[in-house]
Amino acid sequence: MKKIGIMGGTFNPIHLAHLILAESAREQAGLSSVMFLPSKRTQEKADTYILPDEQRCELIKRAIAANPAFYLSTLELERGGTTYTADTVSALKNGSPETEFYFIIGGDSLISFPSWRNPEVILKHVHLLATSRGMLSPEQIHAAAERIRSVFCVGVQLFDTPKMEISSSEIRERLAGNRSVRYLVPEAVEHFLLEYGCYQKPEKEWENGW
Q1: What pTM does this model have?
Q2: CA-CA distance, 93 to 98, in Å (whole number)?
Q3: Is 46 a residue whose pLDDT tops 70?
Q4: Pairing state of beta strands 156-159 and 126-131?
Q5: Domains assigned to the chain
Q6: Do 119 and 152 touch, CB atoms closer than 8 A?
Q7: Among 17, 7, 12, 6, which Cα is nearest to 186's?
Q8: For 155, how many CA atoms within 13 A lie in the half-sphere containing its CB?
Q9: pLDDT tens-digit readout, 6-45
Q10: What is the strand order of the sheet 33-38 is part of?
Q11: Cα–Cα dist 106/130, whole Å
Q12: What is the SS3 assignment for 48-102?
């Protein structure tokens, strides 16, 4: 049976910590592959400048090109309206019932997971795979995992990953200030960001593509 990891997020932009998280999950959970699943702009991030879908997808393609176990899925971008994780994993499982899906999240997200929309539906279709590192202490993350086990009667698989304090918001700020992002993103991603002046132009200038 195939075991596929799901790396969801805005990827605005994708960076090395995303890739390290995905590779650590793949290796330690024995995943066949990892799907990178960019999301639409959410209401929570409505005031944040998010690159258009095409640019974010191109950046992901460039970032994962060297790893044959990584691939891009545009499922959430192709669906109309607001997208929810419960709906996405339901569609994935219905489309491939013989596949075991593992939803990869940061350890900090375990705290908020019970308040996600329809968490019981998510856990019906995927296994939770969370890093044991994050802004919280390992003890707090393990306690959050135990609460999920207690409430939903399912286990949470934890995995270790090198601690890297890289964030998409930091990269956007550095680009806006004409500062280097070298060694924070893959070289091919850096070239694209600089060539097209990403996060340096008003959003309206991207409306007609790049």
Answers
A1: 0.91
A2: 8
A3: no
A4: parallel
A5: 3-165 (3.40.50.620)
A6: yes
A7: 17
A8: 3
A9: 999 999 999 999 999 999 999 999 999 999 999 986 555 5
A10: 70-72, 33-38, 3-9, 100-105, 126-131, 156-159
A11: 5
A12: CCCCCHHHHHHHHHHHHCCCCCEEECCHHHHCCCCCCHHHHHHHHHHHCCCCEEE
Instruction: Check whether the bond before 13 is cis (ω within 30° of 0).
Output: yes
The residue-averaged pLDDT of 167-186 equals 96
Phi/psi of residue 75, nearest 5 degrees: -55, -50
Q: At what angle do helices 53-64 and 16-29 cross, to 10 degrees?
A: 60
More confident residue, 28 or 133: 28
Q: What are phi and psi of 205, to 5 degrees?
A: -70, -10
Compute the average pLDDT of residues 168-182. Answer: 95
pLDDT at 133: 77
